Amino acid sequence: MEIVEGIGIGVAVILAALLILFVRRALVTRSGGIIRLSVRVSTMLDGRGWSPGFGRFAGDELRWYRMFSFALRPKRVLSRKGLAVERRRLPEGQERLSMPADWVILRCTIHHAPVEIAMARSTVTGFLSWLEAAPPGAVSPRMASQDWPAA
Fold first, then answer.
1. Where are the beta strands (DSSP E) in the chain?
2. DSSP of 125-144, one letter per residue?
3. Angle at CA 143, nearest 5°, toward 52 and 114?
4. N or C: which end of the chain has fewer CB within 10 A?
5. Contact at 8 Å (CB) between 117 and 38?
6. Residue 64: phi, psi to the nearest 5?
7. Is residue 84 helix, strand or coil?
8. 60, 45 Cβ separation under 8 angstroms
9. pLDDT (tens digit, 9 = 90+) per residue, 15-67?
10. pTM to 2 decimal places
11. For the structural domain made of 32-132, what CATH number should be given?
Protein backbone atom coordinates (compact mmCIF):
# COMPACT_ATOMS: atom_id res chain seq x y z
CA MET A 1 0.00 0.00 0.00
CA GLU A 2 2.90 2.37 0.70
CA ILE A 3 4.13 2.04 -2.90
CA VAL A 4 0.72 3.00 -4.29
CA GLU A 5 0.56 6.01 -1.97
CA GLY A 6 4.06 7.07 -3.05
CA ILE A 7 3.14 6.79 -6.73
CA GLY A 8 -0.07 8.74 -6.09
CA ILE A 9 1.81 11.53 -4.32
CA GLY A 10 4.38 11.62 -7.15
CA VAL A 11 1.66 11.93 -9.79
CA ALA A 12 -0.08 14.66 -7.76
CA VAL A 13 3.18 16.63 -7.48
CA ILE A 14 3.79 16.38 -11.23
CA LEU A 15 0.22 17.48 -12.01
CA ALA A 16 0.50 20.39 -9.57
CA ALA A 17 3.78 21.50 -11.20
CA LEU A 18 2.18 21.39 -14.67
CA LEU A 19 -0.81 23.34 -13.40
CA ILE A 20 1.49 26.00 -11.93
CA LEU A 21 3.34 26.29 -15.27
CA PHE A 22 0.08 26.79 -17.16
CA VAL A 23 -1.24 29.34 -14.65
CA ARG A 24 2.09 31.22 -14.79
CA ARG A 25 1.98 31.40 -18.56
CA ALA A 26 -1.64 32.58 -18.48
CA LEU A 27 -0.72 35.35 -16.01
CA VAL A 28 2.24 36.53 -18.10
CA THR A 29 0.45 36.39 -21.45
CA ARG A 30 -2.88 37.88 -20.41
CA SER A 31 -2.09 41.34 -21.77
CA GLY A 32 -0.97 40.18 -25.24
CA GLY A 33 2.09 41.17 -27.24
CA ILE A 34 3.59 37.66 -26.97
CA ILE A 35 5.99 35.97 -29.39
CA ARG A 36 7.73 32.59 -29.31
CA LEU A 37 11.39 33.29 -28.77
CA SER A 38 14.51 31.32 -27.90
CA VAL A 39 17.58 32.90 -26.34
CA ARG A 40 21.06 31.44 -26.39
CA VAL A 41 22.05 31.28 -22.74
CA SER A 42 25.34 29.42 -23.22
CA THR A 43 27.92 29.49 -25.99
CA MET A 44 30.21 26.80 -24.62
CA LEU A 45 29.29 24.27 -27.35
CA ASP A 46 28.59 25.14 -31.00
CA GLY A 47 24.90 24.99 -31.80
CA ARG A 48 23.89 24.35 -28.20
CA GLY A 49 22.73 26.50 -25.29
CA TRP A 50 19.34 27.56 -26.66
CA SER A 51 16.53 27.97 -24.15
CA PRO A 52 12.93 28.10 -25.40
CA GLY A 53 10.55 30.69 -24.09
CA PHE A 54 8.32 33.54 -25.03
CA GLY A 55 8.83 37.25 -25.25
CA ARG A 56 6.44 39.97 -24.23
CA PHE A 57 6.63 43.53 -25.54
CA ALA A 58 6.15 46.07 -22.77
CA GLY A 59 6.84 49.63 -23.91
CA ASP A 60 10.55 49.93 -24.71
CA GLU A 61 11.37 46.47 -23.42
CA LEU A 62 11.18 42.93 -24.69
CA ARG A 63 10.83 40.71 -21.64
CA TRP A 64 11.88 37.11 -22.13
CA TYR A 65 10.43 34.34 -19.97
CA ARG A 66 11.70 30.77 -19.98
CA MET A 67 9.13 28.27 -21.11
CA PHE A 68 9.69 25.83 -18.23
CA SER A 69 10.17 28.05 -15.21
CA PHE A 70 8.09 28.89 -12.17
CA ALA A 71 9.36 32.50 -11.99
CA LEU A 72 6.86 35.28 -12.63
CA ARG A 73 9.64 37.74 -13.47
CA PRO A 74 11.37 37.70 -16.86
CA LYS A 75 14.70 35.92 -17.08
CA ARG A 76 16.06 38.56 -19.44
CA VAL A 77 15.00 42.08 -20.42
CA LEU A 78 16.11 43.60 -23.72
CA SER A 79 15.74 47.36 -23.83
CA ARG A 80 15.09 48.92 -27.23
CA LYS A 81 17.39 51.85 -26.38
CA GLY A 82 20.62 49.87 -26.28
CA LEU A 83 19.74 47.06 -28.70
CA ALA A 84 21.21 46.76 -32.21
CA VAL A 85 20.93 43.89 -34.66
CA GLU A 86 24.29 42.92 -36.17
CA ARG A 87 23.24 40.13 -38.51
CA ARG A 88 20.79 37.35 -39.10
CA ARG A 89 21.31 33.78 -40.17
CA LEU A 90 19.55 30.46 -40.52
CA PRO A 91 20.08 27.70 -37.93
CA GLU A 92 23.20 25.64 -38.59
CA GLY A 93 24.30 22.16 -37.50
CA GLN A 94 22.88 21.17 -34.11
CA GLU A 95 20.68 24.29 -34.03
CA ARG A 96 18.48 22.78 -36.76
CA LEU A 97 17.55 20.02 -34.33
CA SER A 98 16.63 22.34 -31.45
CA MET A 99 14.34 24.82 -33.22
CA PRO A 100 11.69 24.83 -35.94
CA ALA A 101 12.88 24.93 -39.57
CA ASP A 102 11.39 28.35 -40.34
CA TRP A 103 13.22 30.18 -37.54
CA VAL A 104 15.88 32.85 -37.97
CA ILE A 105 18.71 33.62 -35.56
CA LEU A 106 19.47 37.27 -34.88
CA ARG A 107 22.85 38.25 -33.48
CA CYS A 108 22.31 41.42 -31.48
CA THR A 109 24.27 43.61 -29.14
CA ILE A 110 22.77 45.27 -26.11
CA HIS A 111 25.04 47.92 -24.63
CA HIS A 112 27.96 46.29 -26.48
CA ALA A 113 27.28 42.82 -25.02
CA PRO A 114 26.40 40.10 -27.57
CA VAL A 115 23.12 38.20 -27.39
CA GLU A 116 21.59 35.73 -29.83
CA ILE A 117 17.85 35.31 -30.18
CA ALA A 118 15.86 33.03 -32.46
CA MET A 119 12.32 33.51 -33.67
CA ALA A 120 10.02 32.55 -36.52
CA ARG A 121 10.78 34.18 -39.87
CA SER A 122 7.30 35.74 -39.82
CA THR A 123 8.03 37.33 -36.43
CA VAL A 124 11.34 38.95 -37.45
CA THR A 125 9.61 41.73 -39.40
CA GLY A 126 7.48 42.69 -36.41
CA PHE A 127 10.48 42.56 -34.08
CA LEU A 128 12.54 44.81 -36.39
CA SER A 129 9.61 47.23 -36.70
CA TRP A 130 9.32 47.41 -32.91
CA LEU A 131 13.06 47.94 -32.66
CA GLU A 132 13.04 50.84 -35.12
CA ALA A 133 9.84 52.43 -33.81
CA ALA A 134 11.39 54.62 -31.14
CA PRO A 135 9.12 57.19 -29.48
CA PRO A 136 9.32 60.79 -30.73
CA GLY A 137 12.53 62.49 -29.66
CA ALA A 138 14.36 59.26 -28.92
CA VAL A 139 17.29 58.05 -30.95
CA SER A 140 16.37 55.05 -33.06
CA PRO A 141 18.75 52.11 -32.65
CA ARG A 142 21.01 51.58 -35.62
CA MET A 143 20.88 48.51 -37.77
CA ALA A 144 24.45 47.31 -38.25
CA SER A 145 23.78 45.62 -41.59
CA GLN A 146 21.06 46.57 -44.02
CA ASP A 147 22.07 44.12 -46.77
CA TRP A 148 21.11 40.89 -45.06
CA PRO A 149 20.82 37.75 -47.14
CA ALA A 150 17.32 36.47 -47.71
CA ALA A 151 16.48 34.04 -44.95
1. 34-40, 50-58, 61-66, 76-79, 83-89, 103-110, 113-120
2. HHHHHHHH-PPTTSPPPPPS
3. 45
4. N
5. yes
6. -105, 130
7. strand
8. no
9. 998 888 888 777 777 777 788 899 988 776 666 788 899 898 888 888 999 88
10. 0.73
11. 2.30.29.30
